[in-house]
Amino acid sequence: MKKFLGLFLVGIFFTTTALYAQKTELKFGHINSNELLSLMPERATATTQLQEYGQMLQKEMEAMQAEYQTKVNAYVEKQATYSDLVKKSKETEIQEMQRRIQDFQSTAQQDFQQKETELMQPIIDKAQAAIEKIGKENGFIYIFDISNGSVAYFSAQSTDILPLVKKELGIVTQ
Questions:
Q1: How far is Cα 28 from Cα 25, in angstroms, rounded to an integer?
Q2: What is the pTM of this model?
């Protein structure tokens, strides 16, 4: 049933497209959004900020691990001299520190991803707005993003709108 419905909808799409094509010229375009994003100056700034944030998290993690290792080494060296109560206390302290390190790793990974989204989303939104503007101004029916591999083929008749979007965003390349 799903297969039939899918074929039915595809058939309607092609029929509608064919009827529309008789009335007007269909204009298709394509863009490699990854290439566009890599050319945007804002991305370099965001990437630098993200790297600095990652390095800060990494340094904090290394400091926690160093402190943990110091405590473990001290415990191993002195455990023979500890009473049972002190041993238990030190072991609990080490286990708690290990749990905090694991929690930090998990939280840091989530924070890093959140920071990446926070820094990159405005850039992605700006690129998307420029693509939409170019699409409307130039009468494109569809603009395919070839960077994600969803388009298996595009003909020479398909227009690469990257130069138009770069111009819209004021990106100058050699």
A1: 10
A2: 0.68
